[in-house]
Amino acid sequence: MIAILDYDAGNIKSVEKAFKILGEETVLTRDFSVIEKADRLVLPGVGSFAAAMDNLKKYELDKAIHDFVASGKPFLGICLGLQLLFESSEESPGVEGLHVLDGVVKRIPDGEGIKVPHIGWNSLDFPNEGRLFKGIDEGAFVYYVHSYYLQAKEPSIVTATTEYGCHIHASVEKDNIFACQFHPEKSSTVGLKILKNFATQ
After folding, report:
1. Global pTM value
2. What are the pLDDT digits (tens) for 136-168?
């Protein structure tokens, strides 16, 4: 069973729907006992870094996430859910992230032909082999909606990158932790394949 964290953040229903298309059993929850029993945990998210961290702390889900990650079971962060796993974001100075992984989140710089937020399809490059991308060709397109991007401290955990006014760390994997800046649930057949790869970890 895949638990999807319900902490009043956006895009939860679309993530749930995508897993159901794949035939995966899911539950939207913020119940600690349900999270603890789940086989996999997903942290979705759309919105501001500070508001999301406030909600996670309000429901004490920050502790639930740390405990689940420590259990060794597969964990997936999506979009803002990726950003929250790191130390901090320029969007919300002074607000600490979950700091499950080392790195910072920065604003996409303004530039000629660069519109922020970045909304649309971009191709992926694979600097390191990623389990999420098994069976997916390099150069595959996925869908983004974001104004901030990850700079991970450890190059070895970066499994996908894209270019949009800067070099974006689009996906990371470390042990049982997986995360994507893009929205696999909105990325057509490529996205469904990524979610299926996660569901079979």
Report:
1. 0.97
2. 999 999 999 999 999 999 999 999 999 999 999
Give Dmax (Cα) for the chain.
Answer: 50
- Could you say which of 24, 79, 146, 169 is catalytic? 79
Write out the two tokens for 105: 């989140």
Find where tokens 């406030």 sit. Answer: 54
Cβ pair 3, 40 in contact under 8 A: yes
Catalytic residue check, 185:
yes
Q: Can you tell me whether residue 69 is helix, strand or coil?
A: helix
Residue 79 annotated to the active site: yes
> 77 forms bridges with which residues in the sheet?
43, 179
- Single out the catalytic residue among 118, 146, 169, 183: 183
The residue from 16, 24, 173, 185 that is catalytic is 185
Q: Which residues pair with 115 in a beta bridge?
A: none
Alpha carbon distances (Å) from 71 to 17, 41, 176, 192: 26, 11, 9, 26
| Distance separating alpha carbons of residues 174 and 178, to the nearest angstrom | 7
Name the helix (H) or strand (E) containing 35.
helix 32-37
| Active-site residue flag, 66 | no
